[in-house]
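Example record

The entry below shows one chain as it appears in the dataset: sequence first, then structure tokens.
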Amino acid sequence: MSLALLLSALMLAAAPEVSLNIGPEGPEVGLVMTATLKITGAEGADCSLIGLPSIDGARLGTPLGPSHQSYVEIVNGRTRRSVSTIWQFELIPEREGLLQVPAFGLMCRGARIETEPQAFMVGPSALIKDIVRVSVEPSTFEAWVGQVINMRVELSILETAHDSLAPNGLRVVLPWLEDVPGLHMLEPPVPSCSDGVMTVLPSERQIPTCIERVRDGGRYRIVFSQTIPLLATEAGSTSLPESRFSARVVVDRGSNSRNEFGFFGSRRTTASRTVVSDAYALGPRLLIREPPSLGRPASYTNAVGSYRFTGEARPRTLRVGESCTLTLALASDHGPAPQLARVEWPGFEARLGDFRVFGKEDNSSSRGRVLQLEVSPVSELVDTIPALEFSWFDPALGRYETGTVGPFALDVSPGGRDGLAQLATPEEILNDLETIRERLPPAVGALPPVWIGPAAALALLLLLELRQRSRRWRAAHPAAVARRGARAGLSRGLAQADDVRSVAAVFARFLSARLDGPPAGMTAEEAGARLQDPELAAQLSVVVSGWEAAYLGGATLALNDARDQARALARALESHS
């Protein structure tokens, strides 16, 4: 029994001491107070907070700490060491009357300990009314999915209070910038300020803001303003949470003491009482609807607004195997439109069945969206890029609008017998002739003179049929056509090359033609990945690296030697394909 009492006494003696001190004295609405939670004893280093209590009528800031302090006391010749663990909180009363601060809980080595609850009276604020203001106004209370709602935010503070601000004394809380269902914040445009003065909105987001001095009756106010675009992404009704604008004003600067250790004995002014003035704005309620399904064009994706859709194709004269650039541009009719980056293009490629699409580049900014397609006709029979459509829903008109570009007429010529679209092989031509011969009537003796005309017509028909078959074969086998014309194109290009760089460019186009790559050419790495022979891929890499060293790094390589290397590599590639 005595042992149990002894153990209990030891546990009580080892329990850490906990205290909560709140200051300064004389609390008032908005006064920035400090709540200091202190644990004395070495066991405090193993303590952790159990959440934070909710205080009705006040807001509690994020804790600072824990920090640790140690000190030594000598009492009657005996040394006593003590360790303290400290957390500090910012406590700001928000209304007059009795303020009750509940207990703070801690977990120390598996045991829960708590502070004593506290209560004190809060007086009225020392600041005058209407120091700060905040307003949040939407451009519309009803919107369509895909439409931008511009939120006009205006903050202001009395100029006299602005001159007495504590460091970093302005703060705006706009919780609707994040995590609001059905809304997505877009990048705000750089504002056009009337007097050219701009600052950054004092919030968690770095938002550029205009600042100006405005007369308000017999006083002046400092006004911050900005328009923040929100994109409606889901249908439904949503209410934006409340916004707050706060200013920390120094009402008592404390002692103006001389700093003996400062430069030239400078004086130091410290703030002993800082009071916060808050202004609130209720969040508007927004209704978001889907654009109507009735009358929705097939070329509509998700664009809502008023737009201009334009396009061009260059060049219009080309050979089979070459490409032209189809440029499609989308711009807003009402200045910068940050939602353009989220607009989806229709499936233009499905309308380009007579073309091979080799490249696609999509660029966007707040002023426009540009899509570039590198397209190549599959045969010389293709003479037109078809018309392309883009549709959007215009909220002002309440209907769908459609923009059309094209059609674009093309002048396409064959690749030629030594070009990328060389005619069919002799064996295929003979097969065509054999098929035509089988359809002709058998010969019966000598042709009488009256058959001369029909025979000539029949020969003409044979030639036309042969040409049509050749065209159809080339259109159906573009890769084979390109491969067959690759060697002739290489020979012509090497003869015209005037330096090693030109040899490398010609060979890159040869690689692309042989290995079904883009018309612009193919790198050695890309070609090596498609080759089945690792030794040939390594040889290709060594030769191309030597060319690059010659025209980039200053290495010496004769033009004829580079041509011979290209021809040798071409023969090796042809023997392995």
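Notes for this example: Residues 452-476 form the longest helix (25 residues). Residues 3-13, 256-269, 416-440 have pLDDT under 50 and may be disordered.
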